[in-house]
Specification:
single chain, 364 residues, alpha+beta, Pdz3 Domain, 2 domains, 4-stranded antiparallel beta sheet, 10 helices, 53% helix
Amino acid sequence: MGLSILWFIIILSIIVLSHEFGHFIVARANGIRVIEFTMGFGPTLFSFKKKGTKFSLKLLPLGGACVFDEDIEGELKSEELKEETEESKDEKPQGIAFRKAGVWARISTVFAGPFFNFCVAFLFSLVIVGINGTDLPKIAGLTPGRPAIESGLEVGDTVTKINGERVHIWREISIISAMNQGEDLNIEVLRDGKKVSVNLKPLYSESDGRYYLGIEGGVDYIKCKGFDLFKYSFYELSFQFKYTLKSLKMLILGKVGADNLSGPVGIAQVVDESYSVAKQYGALTVILTMMNIAMLLSVNLGIVNLLPLPALDGGRLIFLFVEVLRGKPVNPKYEGYVHLVGIILFFMLAIFVFYNDILRIIGR
């Protein structure tokens, strides 16, 4: 359990640090002053100052923040400026207040957090695909008694599209199958160099409580080098995007319950279970498994932060784009009220998710 917790902390630290570093580095590039860059929360273990920014490591490694001056009190107080200037020339605050920067500088600074999450996820994808290769969407078998056989699909077909959506790797088919709610599927395959299109109606299993296609695969792997490495790494990242977006869509439409949401406790449980399985196959399998979890979580964090909801980066971007259209900023007081409501709602959601995670672990 100890090593699982360590892996959980490492994974969470990487995705949070990359997100906040994105805000930080682009803010600095845009000349925006950063008051504090923190890793974790709670009591400060140690800190130091550089160019007016306080870098802190907190006791609890479950978060982080890149704090601009007006995120706390607007402009720094003149006494604080004087005090910091007297300490050291190198520690004199650098840049201007966030709200004094140009609107596009602020937009790029806010967007940079999620964007860096996607960049880190792509780096993980490069490593995973470079070592493991990728699974081609080739049909290896057809399950007896299920609709794939009747549809006209054949072993050896390579799936290229499902309902007009391009398919590049086998796991895309697996997710479409797992998330299917009974919708008919039009499947396009490549057979002996020719395109063949078939229609398939998924079959519902009462015992499993889900729909099945009856297609078997995921065994045809290829090694990726050169251009193929970048191409299939991008497909891997694209798969994680589609998986996350489809999950959110199902949650919003009520096709999956809110009790399927997981917070830090639920993620820690997934890491522990994954580590327990992976360690049987050696250190490399453990590392790649943890990288895969980190990639998925990094994409999740990036996408969720871009949702147009108060207190999230997406919510801030909405106000900034409104400013672009109006030619002047929204009153900071009203924007602050909206984000405060968002923070309260997210705090309530966090309590619900934590409670739900505990119930899931101990068993209802």
